[in-house]
Amino acid sequence: MMMKQRTIATPVKTVGIGLHSGRKVTISIKPAPINSGVQFVRVDTPEQSVIPATALAVCDTRLASVIQKDGVRVSTVEHLLSACAGLGLDNLLIELDGEEVPIMDGSAASFLFLIESAGITEQNAPRQFVVIKKPIEVREGDKLARLEPFFGFKLDFTINFKHPAVDKTGQRFIVDFAEHAYRSESGRARTFGFAHEVEA
Questions:
Q1: Other Cβ atoms closer than 10 A to 115
Q2: 151 in a domain, yes or no?
Q3: In this structure, are 118 and 159 located in the same domain?
Q4: Is residue 181 part of a domain?
């Protein structure tokens, strides 16, 4: 059976506050054509800048995931893109009137609700996948990211912040999405930070 590309059935819109900017942002999520991918459109810029949500567009990951094209940025995309991936969406047009995606409740849950209220529709084209054929590893200091061949999608994370609040909870999380649902295992996972980062 061929897995088909997916988008939303109808446009949806919401308003929220940017975590880092403190500004009100209106965000509209719209269906997009086959093979267009997920694209952000900054409607507050004169040229209505379009920024593709791809790994090559990532320009910063300190305290938020930021994508950029031709000097125009969209910040704090991680929760919305998590919801898109968790729901298996391939093609979307996301319009916003500011630089930052609203933080909502600090998880992907609000975006899951918004997208599901729009409905999801299949498109008449096969879905494209990235297949890992051999291990790939990137290290930076004491940080490590590793991709390995696996039939499915399984994540294994470990953090080490040396903080009492983190030490009391698990510092390792493993989830196999063939056995666990995105919504219950990851969709409500919230951002956390430290007081000294807020001041900065």
A1: 21
A2: yes
A3: no
A4: yes
Between the alpha carbon of residue 83 and those of residues 98, 111, 156, 189, 191, the distances in Å are: 20, 6, 19, 11, 14
Place of tokens 């009492």: 164
Same domain, 99 and 148: no
CATH number (domain holding residue 165): 3.30.1700.10
The answer to whether residue 131 sits within a structural domain is no
Nearest to 27 by CA among 89, 87, 76: 76
Domain that holds residue 167: 136-199
- List the alpha helices (DSSP H) in the chain: 78-86, 109-118, 164-167, 182, 195-199
Q: What is the pLDDT of residues 89-118, one digit of tens each?
A: 999 999 999 999 999 887 888 999 999 999
Report which of residues 173 and 9 the model is more confident about.
Answer: 9
Residue carrying the six token digits 């995606």? 101
User: Using one digit for the tens of pLDDT, what is the confidence trace for 113-167?
Assistant: 999 999 999 999 999 888 999 999 999 998 899 999 999 889 898 887 777 777 7
